[in-house]
Automatic annotation (TrEMBL):
Protein name per its UniProtKB record: Lipoprotein
The species this protein was found in: Niastella populi
Transmembrane segments: 6-23
Keywords on record: Membrane, Transmembrane, Transmembrane helix
Keyword Transmembrane: yes
Protein's UniProt keywords contain Transmembrane helix: yes
């Protein structure tokens, strides 16, 4: 091959490479500006949302509402703490209370009457990286416990299901009993876990 073809090839390669680098820099700059713009939208949404949250405080007597805003104002955590006495006559319009009672029944963990049921619903909001959305949202149940006259049962919760429980019998002096909930072939198995 003649040497001038190598030079032409080299010049074309350098030109393509420099155009690619320039386009990449512009794309990164544009992406960064869009993300910053999303942060501004989120902060505006957050300001409006905090006003609404304040209006909901004290809606139900079973619920204590608390919220936390990250230092950079790019995350909002809302904690709904529930505590109520469960007995035969208990009825509540709150969907989270209905969900917990239904979940305990599904696992054949119907609380003894009367019992004190406690749990926290943790909502997390943060800016979305998806174009057109202001925020993303995650909801988790935490600190689920059922306390009766003689026992305290604490439940683990992962992705919509109870995962385990720790049972403490108050007067026995024995360590906590640990049990895992396992689903095999659509059948619930409760497996005791040894120390």
């Amino acid at each position: 091959m003649p040497p001038y073809i190598y030079r032409i090839f080299l010049v074309i390669s350098v030109a393509i490479l420099s155009c690619t680098i320039k386009n990449r820099k512009e794309l990164v700059k544009k992406s960064k500006n869009e993300y910053l713009q999303g942060d501004v939208f989120f902060k505006d949404w957050l300001k409006d949302t905090l006003k609404v949250i304040e209006s909901f405080k004290g809606e139900y007597k079973e619920k204590a509402l608390k919220y936390e805003v990250a230092e950079d104002s790019l995350q909002l955590d809302i904690l709904e703490g529930y505590q109520f006495v469960f007995n035969k006559a208990y009825k509540s319009p709150d969907k989270n209370i209905k969900y917990i009672i239904g979940l305990l029944k599904e696992y054949s963990e119907q609380p003894a009457l009367p019992s004190i049921i406690r749990f926290t619903v943790h909502h997390t909001y943060y800016p979305s990286v998806t174009e057109g959305l202001k925020n993303e949202f995650v909801e988790e149940l935490e600190d689920i416990s059922v306390k009766s006259k003689d026992t305290l049962i604490e439940y683990g919760y992962i992705r919509g299901r109870l995962s385990n429980k720790y049972v403490t019998v108050k007067s026995s002096g024995k360590p906590k009993l640990h049990c895992e909930f396992v689903w095999e072939n659509n059948k619930l198995l409760k497996k005791a876990v040894g120390d």
